[in-house]
User: Fold these one by one.
Assistant:
Number 1:
Amino acid sequence: MPQPTKTTMSLAVLSGKGGVGKTNLALNMAFALHRAGAKVLIMDFDVGLANMDVLLGIAPEKNLQDLLQSGVQAKDVVVAIEPGGLDFLPAASGVPELLDMDEDVKDMLFSKLNHVFGEYDFLFLDLGAGINPLVMQVAAMAMTRLLIVTPEPTSLTDGYAVVKVLSSQRGVRDFLVVANQVTTHAEGKATFERLALACKKFLDIDIDFFGSVLSDPAVPRAVRLQVPLLKSAPTSRAAKDILAVAARIVRFSRDNADILRELPILKNNFPQSS
Ligand SMILES: Nc1ncnc2c1ncn2[C@@H]1O[C@H](COP(=O)(O)OP(=O)(O)OP(=O)(O)O)[C@@H](O)[C@H]1O
Ligand SMILES: [Mg+2]
């Protein structure tokens, strides 16, 4: 894998349909990039039903909700997962109020988060499924978006809906797509092509294919073990596919380093019409 460069690249991981593999992919891509020498922060931004901590088999003391209190800083909440800069920022589960933060509270939260973001090469924001306004806002704030789909028609139509909402309401036109839980890589490519065709025809948007990940029993096994796939089954088929996606992310960050360097890690002002 090529060596990462020294800019922070933020990636929002999102999907229309739930349960397509966002959290597992975000976690294992973060592991892959860390192995390649990058400093990576995984942020659980599924503020309704946070569960990245469960996949890691840890019970963090503090989470995003604590950051809403004065005096608590982002560094107090960040947990080290692996030595050498693989860190985790947990969210609160079962706290739906976080979805309805008013703008002042959100500004305060993001200004605290910005203090730590710059220390990393990559920032993964694991979002909840669907088109909730906070999810759409955070997805639009990130430099890049990884849209996860599966070959199921429902996942594709919901994925299309995400592209439509983000483009029409927030002016976002760039999407990196990963097809997960595919039977063959040909099926993964065909899944992408179907989505790409609809995005081009109805929204005039060109989406990018970042690879596909085979459906692999090693993934649910890793979930049950609460040990990330790249640790529990590093040679599994899904792990190899995730490494290939991570390598594409590194290449993207190098190829676009000049552009990324000019962008805020999380953009606060973006066009919004609804
Ligand atoms: N490549 C794969 N092969 C087999 N099973 C998979 C694969 N990817 C994900 N899964 C399974 O799909 C389920 C959902 O995964 P995950 O929690 O990562 O999805 P999610 O998109 O984050 O869900 P949510 O929308 O609820 O946040 C898990 O039980 C996981 O084991
Ligand atoms: Mg999830």
Number 2:
Amino acid sequence: MKRRVLFLFLLVAVASLLSAEITLPFSMDFDSLSRGDNIPGGRIRGDADSIPKIVTIISHSGTNSLFMADYSTTDSSELIFTLPEGMPRGTVKYAFYLPAIDPGLIYCTLGTSTNSSGRVVDVQITSKGNIRCRKPEDQSLETVSEGISYDTWHTVEISWDISTNQYLLYVNGVSIAQKVLISNEAPTHLIFKVGSDAKSAHTAYLDDISLRIE
Ligand SMILES: [Ca+2]
Ligand SMILES: [Ca+2]
């Protein structure tokens, strides 16, 4: 009986951890974390060949960054944050580093779920260094910028507002695009993904993720 109570307690504790929302303004520099640590407010996903890891090899700030390496042919590397309730407007910022060896597709998605059907904003950096935005009309990806260099840090800023049904995209502080939201809904999730289920040898580093209400 005691075991059952303990089990239920653990189940509730795990469920509350999984559903933990971030508090705003939110920032994550990974510097106080060690390899294998949980990411406060975040949830990492991936199998043994694609699980994200804290590393000290390179960093945008401080000593640490998050290495997202997808060497799995059945899974991808993901970092998921649950937003407070649903954010009708806000700004997400992050720094990324695309290595010349095994550069990876990097997705940054705001959505009403972790499924592709819930996308509100979906910005992709390709392994060739192009930046693409997903279009609301047919869910295809449109190239908005090219020439992202390897082996150096870049910053991305996305500001969205469902009252205007648009988002603004800045790369390295320069305005790149103003686009219509894929769906006019307040996102509840912020998802970073490197690689894809079938693709392999896709890697990238992330650092200095922040989120605030504009
Ligand atoms: Ca850092
Ligand atoms: Ca994969």
Number 3:
Amino acid sequence: MTKIAFQPAGDPMSEENLEKSLYSPVILSEVEALSGTQLARELALTYPGDMARVGGVKRGKRDEQLREWEKLERGDVVLFASGDEVFLSGTITHTIQSKELARELWSEDDKGVTPECIYFIDEMNKQRIPRETINRLCGHEPDMPWDSFTVESERASANVLYAFDLESQVYFPLVPEDEYKRIVQSFNPTEPVDASRRALMRKEEGFLRNQLFRGRAMAECAICGRTYPTQFLVAAHVKAWAECSTEDRLDFENVAIPLCKLGCLELYRRNYVTVIDERVAVTTAKVDSADLRAFLTRIKGRVCTWWRGSEAYFEWHTEHGSFY
Ligand SMILES: [Zn+2]
């Protein structure tokens, strides 16, 4: 599940580094330490505008901050703290340990130390959250100071993430295929949806998103065919998730499609649209809104490139919808 990290950023050097690489993004193609690396190729997919925001942490005298930084995963949320409040938040997209990159971005302090534990961060948002509130939500003493980079446990993080709606809908933990299969096979529909079950559902969703989007910042909606930033797209089950068998969910290459939040996701879930014999079909029921009718007319008959392989799931949806 998603974790939160505290990044103290009140001292002058931190403020200077924030200015250099967080408030003003870094131009990726100009960073020599990244040139030709696998990371550069991955970053180019996530940041097609060639600009990304970067933060760093020193490893610490006894590697204590390095060990905290190593806990970070994609989708975790960094809270930047100064004085008695969190003033900025952002979502981790990539991490790398590199002195070379750190020196190039921020140089060194007077002891020759550089923040080599590096993270790339998106979805930056201004915040004004009192330290006391966060400490209480995490189960700490209200006046506990934040003097070093710390990553909270998943359990302690959950209350803060939900209270301030910080969990990313774009960046999810990277889940390997065998872990996804284990999650699907261990699923028990009679179990209550508690925090650990939510964590598994988030991993399942993250795996499907990664399958569909593969780190790309833009992708095409399966129904309307428009290209949107992936934050406006959902990895939607062609056959309703709750109705899927274990075998259906293991068929991850065919059971999920990208649907846009700008309309198609709701239209599909509410059975206003489906796909029949490769083409988008729309409801034959009366639609009172002229604007909605116009939209449905526009997408009707489009060829859906996701049909092949997913026929049985679309057929389930069409039959279940029963309006066509
Ligand atoms: Zn769409």
Number 4:
Amino acid sequence: MDGYIKGGETLEYEQFESIRREQRKTLDEKIETSINAIKEGISKSKRPCVAFSGGKASLVALHLTLHLKPDVMVLFNNTTNEFHETVKYVRDLARKWKLRFYEVKPKLNYWHIVKKHGFPHQQRYKFGEPKCCQILKTDPAVEFYRKKHIDCVITGIQASESGARLLLTAQKGIIFESESIGNARLPRKIIRINPVCYWLDKDLWEYIERYNIPVNPVYEKYGIDRCGCVACTGYFGWEKELARIRPRILERIYNMMGITQLKLDEETEEIRVRDNKVTLDDFDS
Ligand code: SF4
């Protein structure tokens, strides 16, 4: 592969290879790289903020940052599409760790948004930022950053999570300046740090265990490896996962999609949806 063209910019093979090299490093080496990036970012910042979702990656990003800046602002963007255990866990942790904690909510809830704009495609960034991500996540966060004059945002993005995040890491690296988040423009450039962008899930779990950090109970309770929006249709396998952990939400989604027949194939345990009148693509915004 010579290069990959993304948004008019050609990414070289070397940019992906350097991510692979970072990913092959030991946990201690990764911690050092992460700490150096956070140090560099916060030394240039007056008002840094950690975006904490309650997930394991942003938990590690938060834990690393607190060592260097215990009074860092912490934003929990409550999408209203969270596991109730996540909301409780985040609020409890904020109290326990005495965080400088803020919680924001969107103007519309998920169901209103998908009714108007459709459900997110299972490859959710294939057509740009889904409308629900913009309204539930980006807009409230950007409004908060504006109001609080945030000049540095630390997030738990990992290159290994998705193609979009791999590309972002290849393009920008672990620390960069940006005038936008998602589709939203910011009033001025801010520093963005993704301290765990080179970490794999196993590194996160090892770090969490090493420092005995309290982790969101949803991972164990539901046997899942992501803890974001509950009713998300924006990833492969969402139907099967919802059938297992929240069948009533799956039913509600199918009802809204106009899908009336929902059968679980007892032999394969696969869900057979479909009266084939409607497919997910009909709901792309
Ligand atoms: S994670 Fe899924 S449900 Fe949540 S805002 Fe993004 S696309 Fe929508």
